[in-house]
Amino acid sequence: MRVPRLVGLLFLLVPVLSGISCASFSGSMTGSTTRGLSAGDRVPGQADAVAPTSQPGVDPGAAVPQTHTLRVRIHVEGVDRSEDVTAILNRLATHGALEDPTAPGLLTITVEELPSTPGGLRFLNLVATAVSGLVIPFYNQVNRSVEFRLYEGASVRCGTIGRTRNHEVIGLVSLPAMPFLWPLAKQSGLYLQSVDDFVHRCLARP
Amino acid sequence: MKSDRFRLSVLLCLSAWFALPALLALQSCVIFPSGERRIPVRVEEGAFAPTRYRLINWRDDQERVLGAVVVAHMGGAFREFSEQNETKQGWNVDVVLAPDVARNEVAGFVTRRPLAFLWNVVDDALVGGTRFIFPWVRRVDRLVIFRVWHDTRLLCSYAYRSDFYAVGALSSLLLVPWSQRDYARYDLARLARLFVMDAKSDGLFAIAGPSGRQCGARP
């Protein structure tokens, strides 16, 4: 008699808990590439090298040097939360890149999703999580690429591609950490970090 | 020796008992279309100006094939249709697969579509609890957006939706005769032709350049 009751409890608990016990323990920019620079700006061989990015946790706004005020049209593609879009635009504005619908220049920000962990592993993990009733956590990796292209005329004056990685842990382990480590907050932080990287590489005054 | 063989056979039987339904459930995904569909009319071939395209957010190999299907079914209408390089000169089309909350990020899915998430979890539990007899039902929503640029100026955006239901697990084997296996491909080809039709009626991709007309909003 006891076992069916427990199973019923699990059926109730698992959907409810798996909804709220979702936390991101660490997220980071895993790489960043600069390209499309004019010859005078940087050494040609350096253009495609993958460079280390600024540390997460250090306030990136302080590290970025003074920039020119730049008026551009901004087009954001692939970000579905409007909060993230406004955060990106605000961060660009604080660095001096202001949105102006009548300006000739164009800045496109393209966010693309990249493959997560292999499907077989995800399936095994899902089965283990479901069978253990969230004691074994479910791990989900969210990989995205954030591409900036600053057009001058019809060609790209400067552009960067940042790769971000967010780790989602869903399970009883992450339940107490959930309010402090909400993955979406981490994700918008990663977007802002890639904005800082773009500003540092393309808009900074030499 | 004998007991070892016995153990091995029991193990094999058990693993087959557990693995076979899982394999069947993964293989037998039955596809059903949902809702009404707009059917495009044929557009004259090669009437549009030379244009460059860019595929955005088609993530894995499977989706890249679908993106290639979209491009292949658009390409005939253009005089020249090639992949975008770094410059945005003349006509450009961005073929965007809109980000889907249900696809990757769990936290986003929970906050944006809580009921769909709840259904997914309950359905998973029922499928596992009934040993892959209860049907595994998912609705696949794809929103394809075509953005038309001319010289770094965004002229129009067209959004088209492609929805279907995917049904899995053992009970879905009964539905196999009514399944439309290649529906996703055919539907994306339909969307590409719809876009070509709508762009034609809005006077886009003219060789002389963009006209001042507004683009109409469509479902």
Can you describe what's shown?
The complex is a heterodimer of chains A (206) and B (219). Chain A is α/β, with parallel strands linked by helices. Chain A has helices at residues 2-20, 60-63, 82-94, 119-131, 183-203, and strands at residues 22-23, 27-35, 70-77, 97-99, 106-114, 138-152, 155-170. Chain A contains 5 helices and 7 strands, in the order αββαβαββαββα. In chain A, strands 1, 2, 3, 4, 5, 6 and 7 form a 7-stranded mixed beta sheet that branches. Residues 37-60 of chain A have low confidence and may be disordered. In chain B, strands 1-6-5-4-2-3 form a 6-stranded mixed beta sheet, sandwiched between helices. In chain B, helix 2 (61-75) packs parallel to helix 5 and helix 3 (106-112) crosses helix 4 (114-129). Chain B is elongated. The termini of chain B are far apart. The chains are: A alpha/beta (206), B alpha/beta (219).
Main β-sheet description of chain A? 7 strands, mixed
* Residue share in β-strands of chain B: 15-25%
Question: What would you report as the Rg of chain A, rounded to the nearest angstrom?
Answer: 21 Å
Please give the largest β-sheet of chain B: 6 strands, mixed
* DSSP helical segment count of chain A: 5
Give unreliable regions of chain A as ranges. 37-60
Radius of gyration of chain B equals 23 Å
Query: What's the total helix number of chain B?
Result: 5
Helix/strand-derived class of chain A? alpha/beta
What would the principal axes of the Cα set say about the shape of chain B?
elongated
